[in-house]
Specification:
450 residues, alpha+beta, Four Helix Bundle (Hemerythrin (Met), subunit A), Immunoglobulin-like, 2 domains, 5-stranded antiparallel β-sheet, elongated, disordered C terminus
Length: 450
């Protein structure tokens, strides 16, 4: 069992790493046909789907303007369209540019389109400050921004395509030879007048940033690497903690009884599964710590505490390789009880934390159902072996008396004369019985005749 699972583990890791490398060099897929039709009237020649919130972004670099004075920086004029399909309860849609060094929410100059209570649509420019991050409210900007300017903004809903779209012309200060755009997008489900309320706090919403090269259409933002590292973290944790460790526990539980194999036939496969699973799980745990430190904008405390608990007690379990007592030690029974119950409790926490991690990542549903399938397969194996164990326990062993007699003869190969006399006297038949006399039955002649 363990060798098969280990082979599957290696294949899944290779697939994950290949996806990671491919994603780093792959070109963007084209936008949907519906969104391309929406942008046709404005002749936006560049378009790409964004990696979160099912959003899409189209643009066209119109020209560059020379500064009015030697101290004024040159600017680039860009026509943009940003949109996403209608989701139930959507109230506001936002897209903006951060003129700073990196794409992040604080410091973004944004266009936010809001669906009013009467059903009408309104759009305004906003300066997203640190106060907005602290839930202090966000209101439209009064004065124009010197670094990012918006012209002719428009927010519309196209019922024929089921899209919300923001159109605008953006004037951005040009930095360097290559035109890079630190853009941020978002959507939310509540607003009061022209003041949008907090968006959902999922990774999909926190990851809605990107540094885009408008000439090559490629993204160089570190967020892409983080997203793929999260996938690797999830794969390592599912295979290491969630698959190999339970498989090792199943081996040691059922190979000793009812199959009663010799110790080296169950101990070393069990040890292999546990060591490989612990190594992969620890690698995923270290990667998770790195991701938690790199993503200081959000912390998942429960998931983190569970993971620390799992690593700590899994390490204690692995110390049994060197610290397990000998079979002659008097406290071995109590140590076995601790080791088994700690292992069962640890597996329960592992399953809970894996499902919580899947809920945080919110990948395709295939992740969740894949792990459900793994648990179902392990559960079927356990159910079958447990049923066989109880059947064997309640079924009488026909060879038990034979084995006991053989053991007795081996322990007493030369019985004493007193034992022989006692045995013969106890087996003496009743004199009234019909048949040959005991003397004739036990005589050599009688034996030869019979």
């Amino acid at each position: 069992m363990c060798s098969t699972i280990t082979t599957t583990t290696s294949l899944l890791l290779l697939i994950s790493l290949s996806k990671l490398l491919t994603a780093a060099v792959a070109h963007f897929q084209p936008c949907t046909d519906d969104f391309l039709k929406l942008t046709e009237p404005r002749n936006l020649s560049n378009c790409k789907p964004l990696h979160t919130l099912r959003a899409e972004f189209a643009w066209q670099i119109r020209d560059s303007t020379t500064p009015n004075s030697p101290t004024s920086p040159p600017t680039s004029i860009i026509d943009i369209a940003f949109g996403t399909r209608l989701t139930e309860g959507l109230v506001w849609l936002a897209w903006g540019v951060n003129p700073g060094k990196m794409a992040k929410m604080v410091g973004t100059r944004a266009l936010i389109g809001i669906v009013q209570t009467n059903g009408s649509l309104a759009v305004a420019a906003y300066n997203v400050t640190r106060q907005a991050k602290m839930f202090c409210g966000l209101n439209p900007s009064v004065e124009p921004d010197p670094l990012v300017g918006f012209r002719d903004p428009r927010f519309e809903y196209r019922q024929d395509y089921d899209y919300y779209v923001i159109h605008a012309t953006v004037a951005v200060v040009k930095k360097g030879e290559q035109l890079r755009l630190n853009h941020v997008w978002q959507l939310g489900y509540d607003a009061v007048g022209m003041s949008p309320r907090m968006h959902p706090t999922t990774l999909q919403h926190f990851d809605s940033t990107e540094t885009l090269n408008l000439v090559t259409s490629q993204s160089t933002d570190f967020g892409h690497l983080q997203r793929h590292l999260r996938m690797v973290h999830g794969v390592l944790s599912i295979i290491g903690w969630g698959t190999l460790l339970p498989a090792g526990a199943i081996m040691v539980r059922y190979l000793r009884y009812p199959f009663q194999v010799q110790e080296h036939w169950w101990f070393y496969p069990h040890l292999t599964c546990q060591v490989v699973g612990y190594s992969l799980g620890t690698a995923g745990w270290i990667l998770g710590l790195y991701l938690g430190k790199a993503s200081n904008r959000y912390i998942f405390k429960t998931h983190r505490l569970y993971s620390i608990f799992i690593f700590t007690f899994a390490t204690l379990q692995m110390l049994a390789i060197k610290l397990r007592p000998l079979s002659t030690d008097r406290y071995k029974r109590y140590w076995n009880m601790y080791h088994h119950f700690m292992g069962y409790g640890l597996l329960s926490v592992i399953v809970i934390n894996i499902f919580q991690g899947i809920g945080i990542l919110r990948p395709a549903y295939s992740w969740k159902w894949a792990y459900v399938g793994i648990l179902a397969a392990l559960g079927i194996v356990v159910l079958a072996l447990e049923t066989y164990t109880w059947i064997k326990f309640f079924r009488p062993d026909p060879h038990k008396n034979t084995h006991a007699a053989a053991d007795d003869s081996m322990n007493n190969p030369h019985p004493s004369d007193d034992n022989i006399v006692n045995r013969n006297s106890s087996q003496k038949p009743d004199s009234s019985a019909v048949g040959p006399s005991p003397s004739s039955a036990l005589s050599p002649a009688g034996s030869n005749i019979l």
